């Protein structure tokens, strides 16, 4: 072995050991660290400078209560985890990716993909076993196989083809795809991928996939649509037999707070109005939900929905025509007190 290479490796291992010691306890004296590392206090000071050069804020204090301690910095440097800490972190990230931690799904999966890259093989079995005991009592997203989720995340990262069984109609067929992004909604995980057999972009529900596997064949990335927008529009409207567009006279943020992202796409159209795109099994169902938002609106598409509005309006007027004098008096009282019926 080259002597210089051996010395450099020894220094690197010693500096990593020093980092682990500083993460384990709040304060160490110089002699304590020197004794643990089997070096002189002068070498400890040099190794501390090496850590500082890598972005670790190591503070040194003088006097009786002095010593070395690892502080907080402006940026987050790499953490050094032992086996137990790595397992606990991976299981916690799996729980977050599965929806047990509100709003943490995307960030948890990204962090888990980074940890997976360096996680030793001997620890993966333990992570897999422990992840099966992690559940959420408040519902959250539809449960998915964590191994399938990680396989897809790795395939997206490494740009390799994936294969999986996926139901279509009453049968499940094998699909081949070039994975692009995993997208989390408030209820489910989706994979946006280029379907090689159908020669087009598709989104797939991860909880409906079985037999997920990654190939070694790498692909050249294609020009891709915006993943989140594509999946949201697919889930909210494209998969339904009937789709409709409305101009709603209310701010987009107000309407978004009223409609789940999986039920409609809301696009801003000026400061006081927005466009709502949604789908359902029947146009009456979509219309009913827009009416119940409580805002004035116009039908943009399809034309037949405008005609349906008139038919339903006449039916509602007819239903309210035979109103009793007592009910009329009640409405007049509500107007006088500033209370209006719920729209």
Automatic annotation (TrEMBL):
Region (Disordered) residue spans: 323-343
Domain HTH deoR-type: 11-66
Pfam families reported in the protein's UniProt record: HTH_11, WCX, WYL
GO terms, molecular function: DNA binding; DNA-binding transcription factor activity
Domain of life (superkingdom): Bacteria
Alphabetical list of PROSITE patterns matching this protein: HTH_DEOR_1 (PS00894), HTH_DEOR_2 (PS51000), WYL (PS52050)
Keywords, in A-Z order: DNA-binding, Transcription, Transcription regulation
InterPro entries (alphabetical): CBASS_pafABC_assoc_protein, DeoR_HTH, HTH_11, PafC-like, Tscrpt_reg_HTH_DeoR_CS, WCX_dom, WH-like_DNA-bd_sf, WH_DNA-bd_sf
Protein name: DeoR family transcriptional regulator
Species the sequence originates in: Planobispora takensis
